[in-house]
Structures are given as C-alpha cells and as structure tokens.
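Example record used in the benchmark description.
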Amino acid sequence: MITSINKLPVWFWILSVLALIWNGLGVIAYLGKAFATDEMIAALPVEQQAEFITEYPAWYTAAFALAVFCGTLGCLSLLIRKKWAFPLFIISAFGAIVQHTYLFMNVEMTPVQLVMPIMVISVCIILVWFAKNSATKGWLK
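Model output (structure tokens):
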C-alpha cells in the first residue's frame, strides 16, 4: 500500500500564521472593549472615549465575539489541518458582517474610518475562500 502525504506549500503556513495573528489582535480588541474599566476609559484620548461610552446592543457584542473567537479557532484549525476551519470562518464572517453592517447604518464614519471595517470583512471572506480551497485540495482532513 502506497501512501502519499500532501506536502503543503510554505505560503499556506505563512498565511495561516498571519491570519492567526490578525484574529488574535481581534480577540485583544474585543477583550479590551469588554473589560475596560472606567479608569482605563478616562485615560484614553477624548475621541476614543466616545467609542467606549457608546451603548451597543447585546447582539452586536455577540456578533463581535463570534467574529473574533471563531476566526481565531478557524486559524488554529488551519494550523492543525482540520476541515472545521471552513464552518468556523463562515460563522466568523457572518459575525463580522452583522457587526459592521450595524456600524455602517448607525455610526457616522469618515472615509478613513471605513477602511478598517471593510478590511475586516474582506479578510473574513478571503479566509472562508482559503479554508474551502484548502479543503478541496486535500490539505485539510
């Protein structure tokens, strides 16, 4: 019996690690926002304080949490070569789209402020495609 091992290209590992760092920064942003104390908020510049003081609906916070935690788990799944990455990235993209759609509809943003939300959604969609493509090529089991 002959077995073949699908040797992954180096760029697969590089992209997976970069995606993990990206999503890890998202987790840090979520935790920073969720657990910021009044003293921490008071120490921020006035422009940034407004973002922390604004009340968001619970479903918005849940969408944010789903986006970052499922994205991080999806990246870890890529690194251990599991097909779970694809559904995790689907959930992450859904959460990011819901979260940012709320922002687009309810928060006045300058063109510069629109860059990050658009980039977040784009990265989510790219990771969904990357996981699906990797599974199709047999790189994920």
